[in-house]
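Escalation from tier 1.

The customer reports that the assembly of three entities below gives different structure tokens on two consecutive runs. Tier 1 could not reproduce it. I'm attaching the input and our single run for tier 2 to review.
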Amino acid sequence: MTFIKNYANSINITARIFIALIGGFILANLVAIIISYLPADNKVDGIVMGMMVSFIIYTITVLVVFSTKTAKKAGISVVSGCLIAYGIIAYLNYGS
Amino acid sequence: MSILIELILLMFGFILLSLSLSRHYNKVHNKHSQLSTRTLWIFRVSGYALLLTSIILGINLWGLTLGLVYWFASAMLIALLITLILSFKPHWLSFISAFKK
Amino acid sequence: MKPRFRQSMNWLHTWVGFSFGWLLYFIFITGTTGYFDSEIDRWMKPEITVVDQVINQDKVIAAAELQLKKLAPESTQWYIGLPASRTPFVQIQWLQSADVEKNILRSWHKRYLDTQTGEANDARKTAGGETLYRMHYNLHYIPQLAGYILTSLATMLMLIGLVTGVIIHKKIFIEFFTFRAKKGIRSWLDIHNIFSVLPLPFHLMITYSGLLLLMGITMSSVIDFRYGEGQQNHRKFYNEAKLDIKEQQYIDLPTESFSLKTVLNDVAIRYKNHKINYIGLIEQGSKNEQYEIWFDKYEGIHLVSTVKYRINSNKVEIQTATEKAGSAAQIYDLFEHLHEGLFANIYVRWLYFLSGLLGAGMVATGIILWIKKRQINNPKNKQLNVISVIEHINIGIIIGLPIAIASYFWANRLLPIDITDRANWEVHCFFIAMLASIIFSLCLSTRKAWLNLLWFTAMIYLTLPLVNLVTTEHNILLSIQKSDWLMLGFDLSMLFFGICFAMAAIIVNKTKEQKKSTPILANLNTKKKLKAAVH
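Tier 1 run:
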């Protein structure tokens, strides 16, 4: 118990770094895939657009992860974002 | 040589904007008072007007993309020069008070 | 994470900036040299004979064709380069296809044409300005993919650093022109703000476009999912993504007389105001015979389209491209061309260079701020702490990198012409010099390290034109005489940078000596002596 108490800050920071870097990367890729479905006629151009916007998503995600009150909140936000994105992709994939 | 006109517009625009701040105005004129609201607004409006003119001029001369590239690059150069002048030789800018009349 | 949003962003800004600071400094400096890569290339190949304007274009092209026929009869792609503003010489290039039996890789070869004698000469084997610039995304000594990923990661953190920097800088407009000298950390903060805010549009552009340029590798999972995995699928994707809207027109040139001469005649009439930069002779003698004409002309920030002549359905056809087919691809093009700055004239090019240096300064002053803030509570005379080590390494890297670049140029002049792997040895000298600077910095007090390294840098830059004079037939006066503007510009720039470093040394000299700080490595010895004395 005291271990967690003493290292609470480090665990907090490490968790956030993990969530931001890896979770953010996954979320950015998923959102990029969603964006690639946007142009109905030109799939390739949509992929290019998705990849270009992904960096903005990544940046915003990192900012959000480091501004939430607790690391748990950050983790929940990112994971739920990924799940929603995954759901949208599954729906779009089945449609097309 | 149209870049020179651009640079001159930018220079006066940034000088006016920088002098609209009491901290810089006081350094240039060796005073310790607050700027009057009238002076402040004249400086700010004319400063922004000159900057806007330089943007429009740039876009007219060189097209949208190239004009904006020239503008941002030149603005950075002029702002750097003015920062150096304000930091090391602020009295060089005291000629602005001549226009106050 | 912290009680207020701004504090969290402050924390994030500090650590995002510090974690990859040294790599970002390296990327900024080497990338910035890339804006003058052609000019550096010319200086590093002093054997090239410079020619401002080709007087008799037909004669030169004929001589070039002769040399290409002699040196590369089997090659399917020949290129003849005519003088342009940043490449004032005639060059020939050819493609050597891969030959598995003879163990030859696919590669391009280049020779420089002496317009007086018609001979094709090779310059010394050098890494050139090109390698120096390519290091800013390939890095060195590691696989190319690793370089791409590290660079991209650093750039991503840079973008986060920029955005958080803007968020936390409350007084961004009020402090726009502010520099308060001689106020310790406050002054360093002012400088860091000036280096960041004034070129902010450039920093945002260069960082974001840098990410875009590597997105094919870093975000490749998007392509994998929607298009297909594997190299073949990816190549299909790129070919389709890069598709531009082509325009074709048939001209009434009889197909029997389809040759370079007739093509150039047509170009002279049809594209009167365009200066030809490259002529491509593709697959000559086959039915796919094509001629590519590249122009030295920009429309805004985009290069004017290449013109391709070929025979199609029994008529001679000209093909040009207008713009990319996809709108996202057009935006990508915009960012790519802004990043590379190939369109820039000499004025904008120097401003690109200045912006890059300011970016490097932003990173460097940021690291210095990080160090100084952590030294507030730990006075310097505490032996051998981590912050002190970081401070010394920092000095070694900040000044070591300019020293490394100068050493690279010195190596180009001093290394024997015919040693094996000469180009790689020039780069080895670069990194050896940097390592030496770091070790040197670790052996001295911080103030002595700054002063000595700055004076050393000033010396090696100021004497570089001298090295040029001694080891080649070029010198400043001769360059003026021969109108060799690139060589002259380089020599004069080296003198200018030398003077700048000397001025920096003088400024550092004038600052008051801080509390005694002991060198790092000396501490190791005293610790050992103490231990020995006790036992």
